[in-house]
Specification:
Radius of gyration: 20 Å
Helix content: 10-25%
Strand content: 15-25%
CATH architecture: 4-Layer Sandwich
Number of strands: 13
CATH superfamily: Metallo-dependent phosphatases
Shape: globular
Number of domains: 1
Distance between the termini: 26 Å
CATH class: Alpha Beta
Length: 282
């Protein structure tokens, strides 16, 4: 099973752009590449900040671009979204206790989609109700490998202006829910607009880079009172993830979307090399 993940699309950031908004161009290019790649996906997961302002018009534009996607789409909100706008565009999204969080199970893998939106706040939110819902879901299926998707990473990356504090209550509540849940095999997030890997409560955690322009890789401390002219946002290529679930193992590939030159193809001249590589497995 191949699970595609896109995150941080930010449609509507520059709605009056001519001839077309940059983020829509990047989103269309990423979607086209994903659907035209030689790897047919089984589902598409959207992990928040689909829009920049959470308005219905931006959500409608996002949904219109996704009409050509032939597989199920599962979405959760980010801090730039609104639950109302997301439900307007994706009306089949399940709601639990007022939050857009739900589970999907396929091919022996249980997927948990979490809602970390706290309206009016840039950082994450994960209240007691969400904690209790997640813990109950995990406790109810202790023998099923489980993958969690969420917008906000509950970790400190070192990119100070994007990071949470190290002991924010929402992160502690999330830790309470996943602690000791050995069947949770991975956590995949968005929000930080950069590729990042770490662990959380001994669970592998990764951040998928954004479709919208990326955050600059600068790990120096930042002073909110002193502008230092550092780079904040760059035009690095949009990126998406493919999570491959096979034989009880989960593995993630990331692909940047840009023009490149093919240096080798599998033709008669290279068949011998391929045969030798397969022969080594015997």
């Amino acid at each position: 099973m191949l699970i595609a993940q896109m995150t941080d699309i930010h449609i509507g950031f520059d709605p009056d752009a001519r001839p077309e908004e940059l983020n829509r161009i990047r989103f269309r290019a990423t979607l086209d590449r994903m659907l035209e790649a030689p790897n047919p996906i089984d589902m598409l997961v959207l992990t928040g900040d689909l829009t920049d302002h959470g308005d219905k018009d931006s959500f409608e534009k996002t949904a219109a671009l996704l009409e050509k996607c032939p597989v199920p789409i599962y979405a959760i909100p980010g801090n730039h979204d609104s639950r109302e706008g997301l439900l307007h565009a994706f009306p089949d999204t399940p709601v639990n206790d007022g939050f857009l969080q739900y589970t999907v199970e396929q091919d022996g893998l249980r997927i948990v989609m979490l809602d970390t939106l706290e309206p009016g706040r840039h950082g994450g939110g994960f209240c007691e109700a969400r904690r209790d819902w997640l813990k109950a879901e995990l406790d109810a299926h202790p023998d099923t490998p489980t993958l969690i998707f969420m917008h906000h990473p509950p970790v400190v990356s070192g990119i100070g202006w994007m990071d949470p504090g190290p002991t924010e209550p929402w992160m502690l509540r999330f830790a309470e829910a996943v602690r000791g849940q050995s069947h949770v095999i991975a956590i995949h997030c968005g929000h930080l607009h950069r590729p990042i890997t770490t662990t959380f409560e001994s669970i592998p955690l990764s951040v998928t880079p954004s479709v919208a322009p990326l955050v600059a890789m600068d790990l120096r401390e930042i002073d909110p009172e002193t502008p230092d002219h550092r780079d904040l946002i760059t035009t690095e290529p949009p990126t998406y993830a493919i999570h491959r679930w096979a034989d009880g193992n989960l593995l993630t590939h990331y692909e940047k979307v840009s023009d490149w030159v093919v240096l080798a193809r599998y033709d008669d001249k290279l068949q011998g090399m391929i045969q030798e590589m397969f022969a080594e497995r015997e």
